[in-house]
């Protein structure tokens, strides 16, 4: 009988059984439970982390998109600003804190003789800009430039703005020249207006000298009046020459009675020649005025002449010159019984060059109002068609 083989012996032998202590089994079970719980927590944390990663990826993509859009907008803005800077007619120079040019537009390069980035502003200023008569204005070659320097708070540098004011200065010079010409024209018109009345009186007096039957005594008196009117014309011309040279005519104190006497002497011959009665009324004694007597005579003569034209051809024509005081104001009135005027005409009566007469200059009443205002007063008119007119010249007149 043969012995059993090894394979058969192994296959039929029972497997050994591991012997585990009861305490060890409990610990192994607890370890597996803890491991399972940790695995579940780790899996949950991984899932949560994966969700957060996905959310961060979305947010990062959105942020990148916003940054990209902002960058594109800033790039477009920079391009527009660059184009605008190049197109500006004004010169713009940006300096760093060391005074060197870091940016310059074409207009500034043109103004400053081709200055470029990196050049020093002090050297450009000394070579290219010559100070003018007005602060802040310079001569840059053939141009007049207004230069304005503003500090840059953030970078510590400066920005220089250069404005070409050549054309503006030329227009200003032309305007000043036109104003001088206008003033000269107004002065000439005023002189002609002031000369007209005394010249007419002198001509009337001189015409009487041609009468061969005039007594010698009357001839001497008329000749003296003629010479007085001619001297008055001479004084007017001298005063206007002083005015043309810018010299003040001065202010003086004079009696209102003397003013009225001079007006009556100047105007009465014209009134008599047209058949108009001149009435000088009011209590003028003791009233003293301060101002330019000749200017006031000229203004009141304009009012009297205007009244004379209003009563022309009227039966019983009369003009009244009077004065009265109201507190610290003197009211000098020129009243006529002429044809009067409507409200629209009265409203425009003091406008320069406005006239209702074909041979009028339209300056007499405008000059009269200017004289009144120069003395701190005014001129007003009250009138209605067919009822005559009253012009009132008001002047400050404190108690003497």
Key terms:
Helix Hairpins; 18% strand; 400 residues; Beta-Lactamase; six-stranded antiparallel sheet; five-stranded mixed sheet; alpha+beta; 4 domains
Describe the fold and architecture.
The chain is α+β, with helices and mostly antiparallel strands and 400 residues long. The chain is built from 10 helices and 13 strands. The chain has a 6-stranded antiparallel sheet with strand order 2-1-6-5-4-3, sandwiched between helices. A 5-stranded mixed sheet has the order 8-10-11-13-12. Strands 7-9 form a two-stranded antiparallel ribbon. Helix 5 crosses helix 7 and helix 8 (293-310) runs antiparallel to helix 10 (364-374). It starts with 5 loop residues before the first helix and ends with a strand.
Task: Summarize the topology.
Elements (H helix, E strand, L loop, with lengths): L5 H7 L9 H66 L3 E5 L5 E4 L1 H6 L9 H8 L1 E2 L5 E4 L2 E9 L6 E7 L1 H43 L7 H29 L7 E4 H18 L3 E4 L7 E4 L1 H18 L7 E9 L2 E8 L6 H6 L15 H11 L3 E6 L5 E8 L4
Low-confidence stretches: 1-12
> What is the mean predicted local confidence, pLDDT?
79
What is the CATH superfamily label of the largest domain?
Histidine kinase-like ATPase, C-terminal domain
Distance linking N and C termini:
178 Å
Along the chain, the helix and strand elements come as HHEEHHEEEEHHEHEEHEEHHEE
What is the CATH top level name of the largest domain?
Alpha Beta
Summarize the structure.
By secondary structure, the protein is an alpha+beta fold. The protein has helices at 6-12, 22-87, 106-111, 121-128, 166-208, 216-244, 256-273, 293-310, 343-348, 364-374; strands at 91-95, 101-104, 130-131, 137-140, 143-151, 158-164, 252-255, 277-280, 288-291, 318-326, 329-336, 378-383, 389-396.
């Amino acid at each position: 009988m043969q012995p059993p083989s090894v394979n058969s012996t192994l296959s039929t032998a029972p497997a050994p059984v591991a012997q585990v202590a009861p305490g060890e089994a409990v610990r192994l079970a607890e370890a597996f439970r803890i491991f399972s719980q940790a695995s579940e927590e780790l899996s949950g944390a991984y899932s949560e982390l994966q969700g957060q990663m996905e959310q961060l990826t979305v947010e990062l993509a959105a942020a990148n998109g916003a940054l990209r859009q902002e960058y594109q907008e800033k790039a477009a803005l920079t391009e527009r600003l660059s184009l605008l800077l190049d197109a500006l007619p004004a010169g713009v120079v940006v300096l760093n804190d060391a005074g060197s040019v870091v940016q310059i537009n074409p207009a500034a390069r043109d103004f400053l003789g081709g200055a470029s980035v990196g050049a020093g502003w002090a050297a450009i200023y000394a070579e290219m800009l010559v100070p003018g008569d007005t602060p802040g204005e310079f001569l840059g070659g053939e141009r007049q430039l207004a230069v304005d320097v503003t500090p840059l708070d953030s970078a510590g540098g400066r920005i220089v703005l250069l404005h070409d004011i050549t054309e503006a200065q030329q227009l200003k010079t032309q305007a000043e020249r036109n104003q001088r010409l206008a003033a000269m024209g107004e002065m000439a018109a005023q002189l002609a207006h002031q000369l007209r009345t005394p010249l007419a009186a002198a001509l009337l007096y001189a015409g009487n000298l041609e009468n061969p039957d005039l007594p010698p005594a009357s001839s001497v008196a008329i000749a003296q009046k003629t010479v007085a009117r001619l001297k008055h014309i001479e004084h007017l011309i001298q005063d206007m020459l002083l005015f043309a040279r810018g010299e003040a005519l001065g202010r003086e104190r004079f009696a209102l009675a003397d003013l009225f006497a001079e007006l009556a002497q100047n105007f009465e011959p014209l009134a008599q020649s047209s058949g108009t009665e001149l009435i000088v009324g009011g209590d003028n004694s003791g009233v003293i005025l301060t101002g330019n007597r000749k200017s006031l005579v000229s203004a009141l003569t304009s009012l009297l002449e205007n009244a004379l034209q209003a009563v022309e051809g009227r039966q019983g024509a009369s003009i009244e010159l009077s004065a009265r005081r109201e507190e610290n104001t003197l009211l000098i009135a020129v009243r006529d019984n002429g044809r009067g005027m409507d409200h629209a005409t009265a409203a425009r009566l003091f406008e320069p060059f406005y006239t209702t007469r074909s041979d009028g200059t339209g300056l007499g009443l405008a000059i009269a109002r200017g004289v009144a205002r120069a003395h701190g007063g005014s001129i007003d008119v009250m009138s209605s068609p067919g009822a005559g007119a009253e012009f009132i010249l008001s002047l400050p007149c404190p108690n003497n």
